[in-house]
């Protein structure tokens, strides 16, 4: 059973109130520190205060997640003042289904690092060194490209690049394609790219004309490079909506099914139903130093049941809305005694958890 289908099965169980004491995805925000200064991102501090403690992670793993995504808060590889703490945290994750989302500027020196992950996605956000330096505030472009190659060299099952699209880098996308094509074809593996919209600062959104121009270039690329992994179900759709910002609309479904499958653990031990709630520090469903697993999962359902249409202001809609609609339509088809939408599930699965061909 693939990961998305496992999540759908767990969702059905939770909606039937069978008392399932399990989580689908645990998202870890390890620290509030980052070594970059991206002009589209929130300011992070350079120190590790706060940062996740081993006891908090041990308690979080009692939620028995199907998979784990290590994505930061700040940057999940950046522990300049406490490498021992980093090792203590990651040792607990060995042998689990763990995915890493990183800016790629740092790779910890410990040899166990490459054994931890079955998927690594690097947030590159530029196709040239000039653009990278402008939007990231640091001259790390060559280092990040070299680190991307290191992850491929270590035979991580899935390695890819994500790209936050906004007005300062939208015209860099064709250059990104040339760069990624050369890297991945040299290694004779199948790459994937994940485009996503800018969040929060709507003044940075690209124009409609800019997005249309880039989309035309992408379509031409797909014709000429058949091994280029650009997903039609989410990526092009999201890119096409960038100038309207999918963060600035009501969710397509009145309830967030993702919210009862995923928890985001912030570095201070607070649990939230999603990364957005963790960012704005609202609607926490528990604290790992105070609350039991049973209570946390109960509060998760309370939050889900509060998302009636009259209370949609709790949610602004986000990148997970496509996944939410996938679950929404699959559940509707369940009620009609039809098979779930396996094609769409499979297509989404191939985007997020694609295994590279070697």
Could you characterize what this model shows?
- By secondary structure, the protein is of the alpha/beta class.
- It has one domain: TIM Barrel, CATH 3.20.20.
- It has helices at 3-15, 54-61, 83-91, 129-136, 141-153, 173-186, 208-224, 235-240, 275-280, 293-306, 321-335, 342-352, and strands spanning 25-28, 67-70, 98-102, 119-123, 158-165, 193-197, 262-265, 270-272, 286-287.
- The chain has a nine-stranded mixed beta sheet.
- α3 links the parallel β2 and β3.
- The longest helix is centred in the middle third of the chain and has 17 residues, at 208-224.
- It is globular, with a radius of gyration of 20 Å.
Mean pLDDT figure: 75
The CATH superfamily appears as Aldolase class I
Strand-and-helix sequence, N→C?
Answer: HEHEHEEHHEHEHHEEHEHHH
> Strand percentage, roughly?
5-15%
Biggest β-sheet description:
9 strands, mixed
Distance between the termini: 22 Å
Number of helices: 12
Percent helix = 25-40%
Q: What CATH architecture do you see?
A: Alpha-Beta Barrel
Q: Can you tell me the residue ranges where pLDDT is under 50 for at least 5 consecutive residues?
A: 230-236, 245-249, 338-358
Give the C-alpha Rg: 20 Å
Beta strand count: 9
Strand order of the largest sheet: 6-5-4-3-2-1-7-8-9
What CATH calls the topology is TIM Barrel
Text of the CATH class: Alpha Beta
Based on secondary structure, the structural category is: alpha/beta
What is the overall silhouette?
globular
């Amino acid at each position: 059973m693939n990961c998305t289908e496992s999540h759908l099965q767990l969702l059905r169980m939770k909606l039937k109130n069978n008392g399932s004491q399990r989580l689908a995805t645990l998202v870890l925000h390890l620290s509030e520190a980052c070594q970059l200064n991206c002009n589209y991102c929130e300011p992070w501090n350079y120190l590790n205060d706060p940062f996740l403690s081993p006891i908090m992670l041990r308690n979080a793993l009692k939620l028995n997640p199907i998979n784990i995504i290590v994505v930061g808060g700040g940057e999940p590889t950046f522990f300049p003042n406490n490498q021992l703490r980093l090792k203590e945290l990651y040792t607990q994750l060995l042998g689990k289904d763990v995915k890493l989302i990183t800016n790629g500027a740092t790779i910890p020196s410990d040899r166990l690092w490459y054994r931890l992950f079955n998927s690594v996605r690097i947030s590159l956000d530029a196709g040239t060194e000039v653009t990278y330096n402008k939007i990231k505030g640091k001259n790390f472009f060559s280092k990040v490209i070299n680190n991307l190659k290191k992850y491929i060299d270590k035979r991580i099952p899935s390695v890819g690049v994500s790209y936050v699209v906004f007005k300062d880098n939208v015209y860099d996308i064709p250059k990104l394609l040339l760069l990624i094509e050369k890297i991945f074809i040299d290694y004779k593996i199948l790459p994937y790219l994940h485009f996503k919209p800018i969040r929060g600062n709507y003044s940075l959104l690209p124009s409609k004309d800019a997005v249309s121009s880039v989309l035309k270039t992408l379509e031409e690329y797909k014709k000429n490079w058949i091994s280029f992994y650009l997903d039609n179900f989410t990526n092009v759709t999201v890119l096409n909506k960038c100038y309207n910002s999918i963060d600035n609309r009501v969710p397509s479904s009145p309830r967030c099914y993702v919210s009862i499958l995923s928890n985001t653990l912030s570095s201070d031990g607070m649990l939230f139903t999603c990364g957005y709630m963790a960012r704005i520090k609202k609607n926490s469903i528990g604290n790992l130093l105070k609350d039991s697993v049973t209570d946390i999962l109960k509060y998760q359902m309370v939050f889900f049941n509060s998302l009636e249409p009259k209370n949609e202001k709790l949610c602004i809609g986000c990148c997970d809305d496509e996944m939410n609609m996938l679950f929404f339509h699959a559940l509707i088809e369940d009620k009609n005694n039809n098979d779930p939408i396996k094609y769409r599930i499979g297509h989404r699965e191939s985007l997020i958890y694609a295994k590279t061909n070697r």
